[in-house]
Every structure is written in structure tokens, then in C-alpha cells.
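Appendix C: a fully annotated inverse folding record. The material below is reproduced so that readers can follow the format used throughout the book. The structure is listed first as C-alpha cells, followed by the designed sequence.
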């Protein structure tokens, strides 16, 4: 037997007034406009309300009459819903009899009426008893309570606080409460706390899908104040239940990204959010909070929560400040429109009064054009009657297009923040023809309505604005001088250029020399002679001496206006302030001179740097000779002279017959890097005669770089080769390790520890020893050989190892090949030393 839907409708509809009458057939009697219920008539229909029922108040405006009609229709809908709930319970009892007696619907109805008459009960009471015996869960108790309230009977006493008792207690407390806040406290204390819940929030849904906290319990006042209002578009747990129109069960809030009231207090608590409404409408959300993770609840608990949500729906509907969304898509006039209409009529610009148009789900779907003022001008030229009373998107479907007019109106309605813009494109679609106009638009919200004002720009006004802006931006002032009458006309911009008040007399052309610099008198006389005597257009540049002592550079342009006989009638022209251009040219000339001087200095500095670099390390050098050892060096300077840096090398035989091999790189470029390179190179030579090892030499050189130079940092690698033992002792300071070519393989020497030179006042360096065999080739180099901007140092070193081997027949060829095939792109100096054991 499939009777779940009627059963849910009957059990989840408690009467908000606490009692309801019923007709003999079991249907509920519709309440009157004031909420009272008339006694049923002999035929079971509801009798007319008594004289105590007040008549709907009369309003003098159409808006008032429409508002009263809407209130009356809402009352009728509520009465119809109550009657439907009673009929649903009777139909559910008939279904039980059909199943048990194996009979048809007609016989079941007859049996129900006969049994009710024999038992002395109303059909509604008997139906509740039949449901009680059939279901035996808390829905039974809810059905009994509904029947008891319908017959104005007190609820039966129960020895234990069962589910039905808790629901009845919560319902009584909620109905007796003066507001939703007290109702929420009753729900938590009597119905939800026994289920383990610690807090409850009742949200009221607005027509724009916003949420307002109508009542709460278990949350602090500070938390409630922060969540007093949730604007449209903010995704919360309650908003999700409102939009999906179904239960939302959250086992653990910490696993969800949805914000909600009180989440910080119970971060791992469970939540249940239920849409609240009656008769297919949703006017709010009931949100329940548990302190710990919440497992899925059994059907009995879920049905109990449904009953509480239904009770919240009736509580929200009884609030005087809450209006439930309409059950069908409709337009509800606002009673505050009369003043807004009067305001729109007092405007000289076209204005439209818009009221929101919401759908069955409470969402804003459009705006109704409630009023169009007498100054209205349609962009498409349509009369006022074609727009007045229509939906905005029906009258202007292109409002959601490029101009985004509808989105702006919707945002103003949602936030209350006014919007104004200039030169917005308004598009109207008339007869499938798109007609566009440019207008200045202003949108503002007044109460629950929106006022839309636009001023369509005509061609003359547009050209006048363009000319005005062009004159302002170009600092141009126009004039016209009648040579016959002597009348001179200036525009406002020209008075500002001259520094004269707007009520002063304009300056005629003949008196122009009196306001110009004395050195420009000849230029002005030549200009006046060309215009007034030769009657041809001319221009001149001069310095204007203003009354405030400011000198401005001006250009005047004029043309004569002649009659049919060639006589001069007037002169028209313009003045332009070219002071900025003049001083820009002066500054540009000075900048060019300074740039040329700077370029000359830079070229001289680069030339000196390059000479110094080449004096210390020439690009080509004869091979060094040593018994049993071939030594070759290469130095490749940077391609750009400005990039000459501090790369250096040295290969010298010491008094101890050992051979010192060094390569270094000073940070930076230019003359400072080159001079620092000379200091470090010479210092290394002087320190090497002490006979100290490579690590000690680098330690001393670090002291030189740190204390005896101006903030110089550098990298270096130093080696001492003993020809008798064929061993190389070496150390490095932040430099790339040497590369050893042995046979067909190329590999870097094991890295040794050591920080770059000059970074610290005192530094120690690690030293290693390597025995070289005949045929071995050792390469020492600076980063200019391998470094690339688009890859790491490890990748650059791997590419060097690939191109270094196998060794060439001659060491000189080996070094030339490395320089030729180098893929470096930093344009830096490159130093390269090659050593081969023979």
C-alpha cells in the first residue's frame, strides 16, 4: 500500500492556532480573515463568519486594494491547506481499510462513516485511530494530536515523556511564545535536547534568497549578531537546504567547506538543515547543531525533525515582520510606491519605477515596470503605454546583453548601493530590430523598489560635449570679433587662459601687443597684418603676460570671415596654451644634452675598463712551458663593452718549482669589478710565494676581499701542481669545480667545501689532492663558459662534460673547441685554463 505522501502531509501540518474545526466529512473548516473559525453548517460546509469578523480595510489607492486582495488570497490558501491536511488523513485511513477489508474505495468510505457513527466519533478522529493501529510510530501520535486539536480536545496524559509528549510540549511552547526566538528555545529544550542537539537556528528566507536569523537557541549573542543577515549568493549550510529544498545532513562540519553559525564552537559537530514551509512553499530553514559527529539518523528521528520543521513554518508565517514568498510566480505591489511615483513625476529626466517579480522558489526573476513618468523617452521611440506595466526583460530583453543593465539593477536591489554611470548603451528590440541609444543612467533603491533614471543623449548635445571636452583637454579658448561693430565674444576657457574674470571685457586683437611680452611685439604685428590687412589665415606664438604675474606660452590662430564682395566682416579663431609643450621641448633638449654627455662618459669608462682588462689578461697569450706539462689559457671578453667584468686567471711557476693555477670571478661588471679583479689577482701572486697550500691561500685572499676592498665578493679556484710527484692540490671558494679528462671520460673533481671570498671576515677552506697520469687533461674555467639563463647550473655542467671529451690531439685545439661550441647566453667574460700531463 503506497500511502507515504498523504501520511507525510497529514503528520507534518500542525495547526498554528492550536485548534481547528472540521466538517462532518472530516475536512477542515477554513478560518476567517482574522484567523477565527466558523461553525460547520448542516451540510458540512463552513458557515459564514460572524459579524465580529472585521471587513478588509478600504484603501484609497490601487496599491492598497491590491495589497488587501493579496492578504485575502493568502488566508484562503492557508484554509485550503488545512482542509487538505484533514482530507489527507481520512484518505490514509481509507487506504488502510482497503488493504485490510480487500474492498474498493467506495465500500471503504462507507465502512469508515458507519464505524464513526457507531463509535460516536467524527470521521477525522476515527481516521486517526485507524492510522494509530496501523503505523505504531511517532506519526501515530502526531495524527492523534492533529485530530485532537481539530476537535478541541486536550492531549492524553502520558506517564513518560515519549516522542509525542515532547513534540506536544515543544509545540505548546512555540505557539505560546511571542516571537520566533522563544519558539526556538522551546524546540531545543523540549524536542531537540533529548536527541543530543545543543543548538538550533531558525532562518527566514527573503524574496531575494537572502536569509535572516529569525530565532536561535544554544548560540551566543555575539555569534547570533554576526549571523543576523546572510546576503544572497553566500553559500552556507542553510542556503544549501533552501536551494535544494531537501534535508542536508552533515556528519562532520570539519570535513565540509560550508560556513555556518556556531561552527567555531563545535568544529567537528554534526548538522542537519531542513527546508521549512507549508503547501509546497519554502519560507525558511531549520538548522540543528550537535556537538559531536552525527551518524545517519533512523526514520523515526527524521520524521520527528520533519514535524518540527512544519511547526517552524507556521511560526514564521505568524510573525508580523515576515512575509512568505508567493506560492506561484506573481507580482506583489508594495504599499510604499505612491511617494516613489510622485518623486518620479517630479523629474525632468525619463524615470521608471520597478518592483521585484519573484518566482515560486522565492528567487528574484524579473522586475515589473510599475510606473513610467511623463518625461519618459524610450530608446526605440515607443510610447509610454508599451512599457508601463510590462516586465523589464520583456520590454528590454537586451538589458542582459553588453550593457549589463539588468545585472546593475539586480545588484542595486540586493545591496542598496546606488549605481551611476555615463554613456551606457541602452538597447531595445522592436520588431526583431535592435535599436540602441547612449544615455547617462542612475539606479537607486527606495524601500523594496528600484528607481531607474536615464537621460538619452541627442546628437547636438553629444557634439557640444565633445567640443567642450576637447577645448578643456587641449587648453583651447575660442573667440569671434566683429570688425564692423567691434564686439568681441570669448568662451569661458579663453577667460581662464587669460587669467581674467568671466565678467571682464574681452581683449580685442588690436590690443594683443599690450598683453604680450615686449620681445614678441614684432611677431604679433606680423600676425595681425596677415589677418586684418591681407585677409588670410595666420598663426603666431607669443608669451602672454597675465594679470596675476604668470607668463604663459600661447599660440593664436585666426581666419577672416568675408562677405560676398570680399569685405572683412569678422575674425574667428582660437588661443591654445602651449606652455607644457614649450617646457617639454626645453626639458627634452636638456635631456638630450645630458644623455649625450652620459653616453660619452659611459663609453670612456668602458674603454678604460677594457684596456685595463686587456693589460692584465690579453685575449691571446703564448702557451706556458713547464717540464712534463702543457699549459694553455684563453680569455674571451664580453661582447658588450658595458658587460666587461672581473673574470681573471693566472698560471705562474713559483720559487718552489710548483705551478700555481688560478681562476676567479669578481661579482659585477664595469670599472669597479675590473679594479677589484686586479687587487685579488696581484694579492694571490704575492701570497703564493709564501709556500702555503691552496686552502691557506684562499683563506688569506678572503681576508683581503673582506677587509681591504669595498664590499667585494668573488669566487675562485686555486691549484698547486708538483711536477716531481705529479700531484695537484686544490681548493675552491664557491667556484665551479675543475673538470678532469681521462681517456674518453670527462668528470668534475669531487666538490670541496668553501664559501665565496669576501662574504665573511674569517673562513676556512677544504683542500684535496689528485694524482695526474700521463695523458690527463685538467680544465679550470669561469661561469661565462657554461652559464645559461634558461637552465640550472647542473644541466650546464653536464653539457660541458659532454662537449669536453674526448681530448683533442693538441691542447690549444681542445680549448678553442670548447669556446667555439659554448652554449652560454649571458654575454659574460670567460676565462679558461687547460693543463695536460705529457
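Designed amino acids, in order:
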Amino acid at each position: 500500500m503506497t500511502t507515504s505522501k498523504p501520511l507525510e502531509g497529514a503528520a507534518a501540518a500542525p495547526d498554528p492556532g492550536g485548534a481547528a474545526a472540521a466538517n462532518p466529512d472530516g475536512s477542515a473548516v477554513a478560518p476567517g480573515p482574522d484567523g477565527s473559525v466558523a461553525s460547520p453548517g448542516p451540510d458540512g460546509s463552513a458557515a459564514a463568519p460572524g459579524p465580529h469578523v472585521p471587513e478588509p480595510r478600504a484603501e484609497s489607492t490601487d496599491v492598497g486594494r491590491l495589497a488587501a486582495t493579496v492578504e485575502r488570497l493568502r488566508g484562503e490558501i492557508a484554509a485550503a491547506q488545512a482542509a487538505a491536511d484533514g482530507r489527507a488523513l481520512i484518505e490514509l485511513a481509507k487506504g488502510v481499510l482497503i488493504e485490510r477489508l480487500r474492498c474498493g474505495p467506495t465500500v471503504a468510505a462507507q465502512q469508515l462513516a458507519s464505524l464513526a457513527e457507531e463509535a460516536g466519533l467524527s470521521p477525522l478522529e476515527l481516521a486517526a485511530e485507524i492510522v494509530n493501529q496501523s503505523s505504531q510510530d511517532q506519526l501515530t501520535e502526531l495524527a492523534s494530536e492533529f485530530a485532537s486539536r481539530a476537535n478541541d480536545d486536550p492531549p492524553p496524559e502520558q506517564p513518560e515523556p515519549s516522542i509525542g509528549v515532547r513534540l506536544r510540549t515543544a509545540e505548546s511552547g512555540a505557539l505560546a511564545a511571542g516571537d520566533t526566538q522563544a519558539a526556538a528555545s522551546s524546540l531545543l529544550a523540549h524536542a531537540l535536547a533529548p536527541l543530543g542537539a545543543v543548538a538550533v537556528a531558525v532562518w527566514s528566507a527573503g524574496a531575494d534568497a537572502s536569509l535572516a536569523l529569525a530565532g536561535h537557541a544554544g548560540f551566543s549573542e555575539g555569534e547570533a549578531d554576526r549571523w543576523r543577515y546572510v546576503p544572497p549568493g553566500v553559500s552556507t549550510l542553510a542556503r544549501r537546504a533552501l536551494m535544494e529544498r531537501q534535508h542536508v545532513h552533515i556528519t562532520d562540519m570539519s570535513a565540509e567547506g560550508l560556513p555556518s553559525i556556531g561552527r567555531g564552537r563545535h568544529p567537528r559537530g554534526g548538522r542537519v538543515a531542513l527546508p521549512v514551509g507549508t503547501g509546497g512553499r519554502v519560507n525558511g530553514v531549520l538548522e540543528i547543531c550537535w556537538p559531536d559527529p552525527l551518524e545517519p539518523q533512523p526514520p523515526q528521528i527524521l520524521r520527528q525533525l520533519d514535524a518540527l520543521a512544519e511547526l517552524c513554518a507556521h511560526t514564521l508565517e505568524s510573525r508580523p515582520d515576515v512575509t512568505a514568498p508567493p506560492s506561484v510566480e506573481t507580482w506583489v505591489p508594495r504599499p510604499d510606491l505612491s511617494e516613489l511615483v510622485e518623486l518620479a513625476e517630479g523629474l525632468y529626466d525619463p524615470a521608471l519605477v520597478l518592483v521585484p517579480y519573484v518566482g515560486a522558489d522565492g528567487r528574484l526573476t524579473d522586475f515589473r515596470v510599475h510606473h513610467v513618468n511623463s518625461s519618459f523617452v524610450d530608446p526605440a521611440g515607443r510610447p509610454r503605454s508599451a512599457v508601463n506595466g510590462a516586465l523589464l526583460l520583456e520590454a528590454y530583453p537586451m538589458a542582459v546583453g553588453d550593457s549589463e543593465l539588468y545585472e546593475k539593477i539586480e545588484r542595486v536591489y540586493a545591496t542598496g548601493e546606488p549605481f551611476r554611470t555615463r554613456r551606457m548603451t541602452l538597447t531595445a528590440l522592436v520588431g526583431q530590430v535592435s535599436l540602441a541609444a547612449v544615455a547617462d543612467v542612475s539606479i537607486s533603491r527606495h524601500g523594496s523598489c528600484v528607481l531607474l533614471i536615464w537621460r538619452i543623449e541627442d546628437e547636438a548635445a553629444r557634439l557640444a560635449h565633445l567640443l567642450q571636452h576637447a577645448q578643456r583637454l587641449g587648453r583651447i579658448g575660442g573667440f569671434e570679433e566683429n570688425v564692423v561693430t567691434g564686439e568681441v565674444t570669448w568662451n569661458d576657457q579663453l577667460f581662464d587662459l587669460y587669467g581674467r574674470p568671466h565678467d571682464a571685457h574681452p581683449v580685442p586683437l588690436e590690443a594683443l601687443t599690450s598683453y604680450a611680452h615686449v620681445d614678441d611685439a614684432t611677431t604679433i604685428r606680423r600676425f595681425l597684418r596677415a589677418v586684418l590687412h591681407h585677409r588670410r589665415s595666420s598663426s603666431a606664438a607669443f608669451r602672454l603676460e597675465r594679470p596675476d604675474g604668470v607668463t604663459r606660452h600661447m599660440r593664436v590662430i585666426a581666419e577672416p570671415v568675408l562677405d560676398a564682395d570680399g569685405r572683412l566682416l569678422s575674425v574667428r579663431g582660437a588661443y591654445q596654451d602651449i606652455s607644457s609643450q614649450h617646457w617639454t621641448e626645453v626639458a627634452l633638449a636638456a635631456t638630450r644634452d645630458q644623455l649625450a654627455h652620459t653616453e660619452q662618459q659611459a663609453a670612456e669608462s668602458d674603454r678604460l675598463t677594457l684596456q685595463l682588462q686587456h693589460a692584465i689578461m690579453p685575449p691571446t697569450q703564448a702557451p706556458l712551458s713547464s717540464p712534463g706539462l702543457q699549459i694553455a689559457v684563453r680569455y674571451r671578453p664580453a661582447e658588450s663593452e658595458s658587460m666587461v667584468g672581473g673574470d681573471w686567471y693566472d698560471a705562474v711557476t713559483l720559487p718552489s718549482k710548483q705551478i700555481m693555477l688560478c681562476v676567479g670571478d669578481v661579482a659585477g661588471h664595469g670599472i669597479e669589478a675590473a679594479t677589484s679583479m686586479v687587487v685579488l689577482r696581484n694579492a694571490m701572486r704575492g701570497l703564493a710565494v709564501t709556500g702555503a697550500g691552496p686552502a691557506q691561500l684562499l683563506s688569506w685572499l678572503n681576508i683581503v676581499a673582506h677587509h681591504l676592498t669595498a664590499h667585494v665578493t668573488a669566487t675562485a679556484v686555486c691549484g698547486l701542481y708538483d711536477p716531481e710527484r705529479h700531484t695537484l692540490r686544490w681548493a675552491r671558494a664557491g667556484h665551479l669545480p675543475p673538470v678532469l679528462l681521462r681517456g674518453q671520460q670527462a668528470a668534475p673533481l669531487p666538490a670541496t667545501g668553501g664559501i665565496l671570498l669576501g662574504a665573511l671576515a674569517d673562513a676556512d677552506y677544504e683542500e684535496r689532492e689528485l694524482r695526474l697520469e700521463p695523458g690527463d687533461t685538467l680544465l679550470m674555467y669561469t661561469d661565462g663558459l657554461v652559464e645559461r639563463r634558461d637552465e640550472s647550473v647542473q644541466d650546464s655542467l653536464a653539457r660541458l662534460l659532454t662537449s669536453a671529451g674526448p681530448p683533442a690531439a693538441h691542447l690549444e685545439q681542445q680549448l678553442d673547441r670548447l669556446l667555439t661550441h659554448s652554449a652560454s647566453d649571458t654575454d659574460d667574460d670567460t676565462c679558461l685554463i687547460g693543463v695536460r700531463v705529457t
